[in-house]
Design brief:
It is built from one helix and eleven strands; from the N terminus they run H-E-E-E-E-E-E-E-E-E-E-E. By secondary structure, the protein is of the alpha+beta class. The protein has a single domain, classed as Beta Barrel (Porin), CATH 2.40.160. Strand 1 and strand 2 form a beta hairpin. The longest helix is centred in the N-terminal third of the chain and has 30 residues. It is globular and about 55 Å long.
Length: 190
């Protein structure tokens, strides 16, 4: 009986993730439908590499400002085209420890030390983002349980230096808490 429940739950998660990825791709396609060369690489100069470090994080659960060391939250990326960034982050992916009939211990399990990242930029430096752990250190927690979707904006300060602000949340969580996070940081595109 337990195995069939687990299989049904797993099928629902995969179905949910397929729909989520489809919506993400569709929304990015609609957002750039007027830009005919969205994925084309042209001869004009555009940034190829991206490095970012967040210095402030705000979690929805407690609304506390948490200054973080930028070294602990670096993002490295490569622009596959003018508007598509593919990379990884050393931001920890954490999950709640849960035991039946007890309150969960928030962010007490380290799922992964690294996350893959995909960003799709608009013409005006807004972006949609998808982040997910590269692996799961916890056998009961799937990588798909930790997928985070977000939006953000890159504000050019000077030259290749940008101020980044973004908000992301869990795409799926069994207890319906999305665990949103706001990130503020600096980035360099070169």
């Amino acid at each position: 009986m337990e195995i069939t429940k687990a299989r049904k739950l797993l099928k629902l998660r995969f179905k949910f993730m397929r729909h989520l990825i489809f919506i993400f791709l569709l929304s990015s396609n609609v957002a750039f439908s007027q830009d005919s060369n969205f994925l084309e690489t042209t001869n004009e100069k555009f940034s190829k590499f991206y490095i970012s470090g967040d210095f402030l994080q705000i979690q929805d659960a407690d609304l506390d400002f948490e200054f973080i060391d930028a070294i602990d939250n670096l993002t490295f990326g490569y622009f596959a085209s003018k508007r598509l960034l593919i990379g990884f982050s050393n931001e920890d992916s954490k999950a709640d420890f849960r035991v039946e009939d007890l309150n969960p211990v928030s962010d007490s399990l380290l799922v992964s030390k690294f996350q893959a990242l995909v960003r799709v930029y608009t013409k005006h430096d807004f972006f949609f983002q998808l982040k997910m752990p590269l692996n799961s250190n916890i056998s009961d927690i799937s990588v798909l349980d930790q997928v985070r979707l977000g939006v953000g904006y890159s504000f050019r300060l000077t030259g290749d230096l940008y101020f980044d602000a973004n908000y992301d949340l869990l795409a799926y969580n069994s207890d319906k808490f999305r665990k949103g996070k706001t990130h503020l940081g600096l980035s360099v595109k070169f």
